[in-house]
Every structure is written in structure tokens, then in C-alpha cells.
């Protein structure tokens, strides 16, 4: 129903949405800053910020246990990508570009991105649900009331685990995809494995690899921060944990893709290829 | 105005959750070695008072002191240090569900002191024995009953030898024998170890057993504050109705009419 007020209402709606969005962004930013602060304060007192066992437990769960999923998805995507680009390139007799295309595509872009999306869904959701349940059952408050910093105790080990494990996972993703490409190249385009490796080595630049690794660090930090923030701000009991978990996954995936785009825009502006 | 002479002092504290005013210019002081019991209806803001003292909630106005520290103005690091001198037992225990009883109780020592594992184990055993839970060390909280959880929570609160113990409904859900044991424990802690305690409860029997002073919270204010004997004789109609559990009086006035009308 259109009336004279509707443009005003639309403008108000946009205003509300952008204000909420900015508020969320700044909350997550300060959440990260506070976690660092609390951890550093603890280290200044000459104490370990958290137990090694706690860190290893999270890295096992977030990193090692994610390898099969990340590997499998990347393997299939590598197969598809090699096959589809291969048939197109064959028309021009340039099949030997396939290895470079997939290798660059994955190390710079798809590896970190795919890994980010999968980790957000698999681990981000787990972090939010876990911390959210602790929040609603007053466990977080109990930790705080003992004089233990909950950010340092609960968030820091999770954040560190994801930040350190993400580059490893995207490397696993890259390797799986390149391996899949080598199979396709051998089977359909008669590129033997040693020649395939040479082609990959020739086309990959250190810059591509560094870009991919840097992105992975960033994505790890963002996913962990969003997931833990959503978990610790749960309100409204069991239903609250559910909706926060959904929101955590959606926000983390959107943020990862958004940051990836932003990064690429900035990067190509300063280093045009 | 600082009040180093009191253990705890709340001055003109006002706390509001959105529209609902919970505490309204409330003032309360607690002296060292005292065992204060705060009584009041469910939802009257008793637990809120405990959370304000711990600094996990902040008042909308007014100030909260623990000894010479103004809780409301302390920076995070200092606040964490101060909290080590306060032990809190939550109404629903708030044990960490993924850690065993032993790990729950050991947590404050593991995180906040440099004690070795052997020393910690010794203290854990000692505190669990105090609450009669030494046989449940390796169980997870989900394997315990509500009363057992509460005793573990009490053991955890005692780990750092607190000067002030805050207890939210410590005897609710416990059988009468265990409830008496917990009451005696609270009394002996204040007599032997000079622990001050603030207990929130509406269990009359344990309230009168523990208290050296009692306060009644009603509509956001402390309306009566007295020693147990005097408190029992209070002329205040709210206190009298609360103690007798009668439906006649200012509390929930009119609700009986509503029931009989149906």
C-alpha cells in the first residue's frame, strides 16, 4: 500500500539497519581488542594466558578434524574446475593452462574462501553453541565472579587455534584441489604428472601464496571473533542459543565473503596484474 | 565518602532492568564477620544485590563498596583481583558442565595461583570433605543432583579462602540434614576463619539459624533490618506477613480475591 509516508519509512528502515550494522561491527571490533588486552595483561603478570591442553583441544577439533571435510570438498571442486575450464581451453589448444589456472585460483582465492565458509559452518557454529550454553547456564558469570577473565580463559584459546589452523587448512584445500586437477589433466588432456608439476610451479608466484595465507589468518580471526561474540552475548535460554548459532554462521560466512571482496579490490588497486 | 570500616556498603543504589525498577535507592552496610541474611519475595532483587557486590552487574546510580574498593569504579584488572576475595555460590550452582567435580573445584587455584598439582589436589580434597562430596571427585556435574551441585559450588567458592561469601539460596533443594550441615559450615566459617557472609534465602529455618542480622527487601528497599530475635517480633506488616506466610497483608494484596472469584 503506497502512501505519502512510504519513502520516509524506507529511509528510516535503511537508517535503522545501517545503525545496527555499524553497532555490531564496532562491538566485534572491541571484542577482539578486549580479548587481546585481557590476554596481554595476563602475560604481563608473568603467567600463561591459557592452558596448552585447552589450546590443543580446540586446534584438534577445529583443525585436524576439519581436514577430511575441507579436503573432500576441495578435491571435488578441483575436479569440476579442471574439467570445465579444460574443455573450454581445449577449443583453443591451450589445455596446458589448466594447472596454472586451478593452482592460482585456489591458492589466492578459492582455498581460503572455501575453507573459511566450511570452518564458519562447522566450527563457528560449535563455538557459538558451546559458549552460548555456558552463558545461559551462568557458567560464564561464575568464571568472571572468581576473578578469571572469561575472554582470556574462553575466547583466547579458541581464537588462537582458528587463526593458526586456518592457513594449514587452506593449504590442505589447495593441495587437494591441485591433486584433483592433476588426475583430470592426466585422464582427459594427456598432461603427465611431472609436466603438470612443472606447469604449476611455473605459474604460481610467491605473491599468490602469501596472499592466500594472509587471507586465511584474517578469516580465522574473523570467524572466531564473530562466533565467540555471538556465543557470549546469547540471551533468552535455549531458543536464544539456537538463533545465535544461526546468526553466527550467517554473519561469519557473509563477513568472510565480504572481506575477501574488499581485500581483492584493495589488492588489485595497489598491485594491478 | 569512602567506607573502609565496613566490609560491604551499598549507597543509594538504583538498578533498573529496562522498565522494571528492581532496586530503588537502596542502602545497606555489612560489617566484618557478620552473617547477614537478606529475605524477600522471589524476584524482589535479592540476587541482584549479590551481583552488584561482585560487580557482574552495574547499578544505574549509586555506589557499591567492598572494603575500601569502590566496585563500580574499579578498572577490570583491579576488579578481578578484588573478586578473588569474594566467594559466590549461585542459585543454580553454575558449575562448568564439561569439567569434572575435581576440575571445577580446582579451577580458581589452577588459574589464579602458582600452586603445584599436588598442593591443589590436597586443598580440593580438604574442601570437598568439608561439604561431604569427597567421593564424587571424578563425576561430571550432570551426574549430580541439585543439592550435590550446590555443595560442590560451595567448595569451589571456598577454594581461595574468601573474606566474603555470597550465597544465593544455599539450602534450597537440599534435604534437611545436608541443609543443616551447610548452615553449620557457614556459621563455623565465620567463627573460625572470620568469613563474612551474605545469604539470600526465603527458607525461614536456615535463615534464623545462620543470621546474626536480617534484612527484609521489599519493593526495591530494605524495609526492616534487625537481629533475628528482634526481626521475629517486627511490627512491620510486610515482615509479619512474610514470616507467617499468611495471605492476609500488604504482600500480593488482592490476589486471594482474584482466586476466590474464579
Number of discrete domains of chain A: 1
Percent in strands of chain A: under 5%
Largest sheet of chain A: none
| Poorly predicted tracts of residues of chain A | none
Shape summary of chain A: globular
SS elements, strand count of chain A? 0
Please, what is the oligomeric state? heterodimer
Q: Portion of residues in helices of chain B?
A: 25-40%
Largest sheet of chain B: 6 strands, mixed
Q: Which H/E pattern describes the elements of chain B?
A: EEEHEEHEHHHEHEHEEHHH
Query: Helix segment count of chain A?
Result: 9
Q: For the record, give the distance between the C-alpha atoms at the N and C termini of chain B, rounded to a whole number.
A: 54 Å
- Shape type of chain B: globular
Structural class by SSE content of chain A: mainly alpha
Order of helices and strands of chain A: HHHHHHHHH
The whole-angstrom Rg of chain B is 19 Å
- Number of DSSP-assigned strands of chain B: 10
Search tags:
heterodimer, A: 273 residues, mainly alpha, 85% helix, globular, B: 262 residues, 6-stranded mixed beta sheet, 4-stranded antiparallel beta sheet, 10 helices
Q: How does this structure look, described?
A:
- The complex is a heterodimer of chains A (273) and B (262).
- Chain A is an all-alpha fold and 273 residues long.
- Chain A has helices at 6-44, 52-62, 67-90, 98-136, 139-145, 150-189, 193-203, 206-232, 237-270.
- In chain A, α1 packs across α6 (150-189) and α3 (67-90) runs parallel beside α6.
- In chain A, 41% of the residues are buried.
- The model of chain A has no long low-confidence stretch (mean pLDDT 92).
- Chain B is built from 10 helices and 10 strands.
- In chain B, α3 crosses α4 and α3 (101-112) packs parallel to α5 (146-158).
- The N and C termini of chain B lie far apart (54 Å).
- The relative contact order of chain B is 0.16.
- Chains A and B meet through α5 of A and α2 and α3 of B.
